[in-house]
Amino acid sequence: MTKLPIALACSLTALIAVKPFSGYSQTTPAELTITRFSGPAVTPSPACLAVAPTGEVFVGVDMIGSLGKDPGKGRILKLVDKDNDGKMDQHTDFAEVDNPRGIIVMGNQVFVLHTTFSKETGKATGMALVVFEDKDGDGKADGPAQPLVEHLSNTKYIQERGTDHATNGIRMGIDGWIYIAVGDFGFHDATDRSGKKLTMLGGGIVRVRPDGTEMEVFTHGTRNVYDVAIDPYMNVFTRENTNDGGGWNVRFSHHLQSGEYGYPVLFQHFTDEIIPALADLGGGSGTGALFMAEPGWPEKYNNVPMMADWGRSMLYIHRVTPDGPTFTQKEEDFIALPQITDLDVDGSGRLYLSAWDGAGYSGSDTIGFVVRAVPNNWTYKAFPDPAKASVDELIGMLKSASAVARLNASRELLQRNDQQGIAAALKIASDAQQPLYARVAGLYTYAQAAGKNGIGTLVELTKDAAIREHALRALADRKGLLADVPEQPFLDGLQDASPRVRAAAIVGLGRLGRMDAAIALLQTKVPASFVAPVKDKEGPHATPNAAIVLPHLAVRALVELHAVDAAVAAINGANAPLALWALRYMHDEKAVNGLIAAYQQSKDLKLKKQILTTLARLYKKEAAYDASWWWGTRPDSHGPYYKAVLWAGSPLIEKFLKKEALKADPARMELFRDLDARHRMEIAAFAPLKKTEPVAAKEPKVDLEKIKSKKGQVGKSSIEDVLLAVKQIKGDPAKGKILFVNQGCVACHSLSREEKMKGPFMGQIGSIMNRERIAESILKPNASISQGFATVTVTAKGNKTYVGFITEETATKVVMRDITGEVYTVKTADILSRKEMKTSMMPTGLANALSYEEFASLVNFLSQQKK
């Protein structure tokens, strides 16, 4: 029988104070040197950071955390290492902001993404991307921030839950756009500086110009993407959460502009339609991201996406290998850091990383730190201040192997609008002898500076195979200039040998908005892998599929064009598969009539079935998003819509399908029933013969009073939901004491100093941790293992192995206690090997059988232990 109660008791090995800053170097790559840059006295709860090219570190302190709701606990700090020894020597409070979630430093501007609060009510009012300036260089913002984009998240749920699924990291690409990671709260009527409004249901990536204009959606359909890594060729990578029902895993994705990644409505039963992630990596929680491209770093750690995982306390490297228009990947452990949150690198090659270090879901004012990592052979070489550099020096930086140098040189040249520098940027772009990364940097710098006047030159650059992809991207990059951009280079690009060029051409044609391009787009071939998942079986949402990318992008372009007539005309031709795929998203009565007419004309049974499938898909559509709801942490992911509604074309579709169903024999009638179930049309005539369990059309309202005593509720909820419940349920400490004793917690923990010390002492835990941190440590025993209570594996003579924590050690013996409470004494002379594990002795999930009330009672009892 599983010893669940005792195992649960031993989860409390995580409950003693978070281990001090030490031991991380045991998993540091041998080629690197890591030093402590700042500690919790200066940088508690560091949620994000960014580094100026010259080395000044800006840290976002966030003592609200992801579930806190009280303002006045956040700030941006500027940290300086004057003697370059890897330790902060000076710091200033740069600006006061709540919930800083992302920072970019560019010249004297500091861009910050953060939660906004009402001074009158103290409640959150949304999230905003703002910019501060420090023109006098005193390390403090000159005045209030200037808003660039406001209302960048769902205010209702930020107020109710906090920012756990809100908008997060920001990073700038060499194309000059700021890319914003949007969690699946989404947003309604986000407003940029020009007054443009944008609404997005769910998560993805949004981008905006540095002046706060031209805001647009870049990709859509991710759950809780926290940050983006952008390589020198504008490949965008993320490590984002996956479907809750699948175990809170993380995915690694390559984002292609206009792509749909499927969460949650296409995530299980419509995966043929999405761009899949490159990998499902198992449990975790992705946070900060960086593409490392800096000279002086060891080759094997350079030119790679680096992805922080808060849940695994690890910075990962992803080895990406080109695969047509996309990539495949291989994940590798890189640097272990307790609850790592963010990372950034300066122009001298210094990598900075921030660690939450067990600060809890609501932050802490006593925990958290920042470290610096450099190669062992690194010596400090001052990076020139771009603002003080000559044009020749900036041009030299634009050709540098350093991505930091290229980006900052580009921004400075654009800021100055120096014609000599812009001409030099074009010369770099045109020079076949330059490395591709330099040519790309020169091209995007020129395109931004020249604007409309540079269109002709960019058209000429599309004739150069090496940079054709980027010339096409730059031509279609700014919607305000598209009226003057010719279509022919993009049509030519559709025939290019390079799938990356074809991808850029397809996306560009969608952005140009010329309806005559639809015929060319419809010729994009659909691969054999475009197959719907088997009924009631989840499809492959994280299996690389390079063949699906180009047709997927072509469909998105056709939808952008709203090319109904062209798609309908193609139904009975060779391009029917792509046309019907595109028509699934065109809720237009012309599309419905065209599909019905094509069905009646066709004698191809396979095609007729595909038309029926398309009509079933069009029967309903997604309700307009008004931010009054959110699908929660365990959304209904059946699809194809979350809040489905009827529209003007629905009666015509229903009438036609019923008429066709009446012609069907009993066997074929099953087709209509399957279409109804798969697409949730809910047409009574197609109801199943046997009653099935109904699926809730609306998100169920959780009545905490009714479920708080339900056994197993902890295991059915996300950690965040359990913590929110514990905040509302006080719990009975008397019951908690009974749980602690009767369930065997005493086997590993003492409450009184008079008792023999075993595992972590619980008699004063309430004076060390608050309720939330106690609860979090039980739920996530690996997050912050107590110093001295890590799990140790010892192998000894006689083919013996012991696993547990060490309770006593002398020169002659080691005393260990295992998860069942058994004590073993091992002679030092008999020990063959000894290894400290990265995980707690208790596996995660062993609190799952408890009710909310039981869990709250145990937490409440422990919180009262303050001896």
TrEMBL record:
Q: Which InterPro entries match?
A: 6-blade_b-propeller_TolB-like, ARM-like, ARM-type_fold, Cyt_c-like_dom, Cyt_c-like_dom_sf, DUF7133, Haem-bd_dom_put, Quinoprot_gluc/sorb_DH_b-prop
Q: Which PROSITE patterns match?
A: CYTC (PS51007)
The answer to whether keyword Transit peptide applies is: no
**Domain Cytochrome c intervals:** 731-866
Q: Which UniProt keywords apply?
A: Heme, Iron, Metal-binding
Q: Which residues form the signal peptide?
A: none
| Pfam families per UniProt | DUF7133
User: One GO molecular function term?
Assistant: heme binding
Q: Has the keyword Lipid biosynthesis been applied to this entry? A: no
Q: Which domain of life is it from?
A: Bacteria
Identify the PANTHER family for this entry.
Answer: LARGE, MULTIFUNCTIONAL SECRETED PROTEIN, LARGE, MULTIFUNCTIONAL SECRETED PROTEIN-RELATED
Question: NCBIfam families from the xrefs?
Answer: CxxCH_TIGR02603
What name is this protein filed under?
A: C-type cytochrome
User: Which organism does this record belong to?
Assistant: Chitinophaga fulva
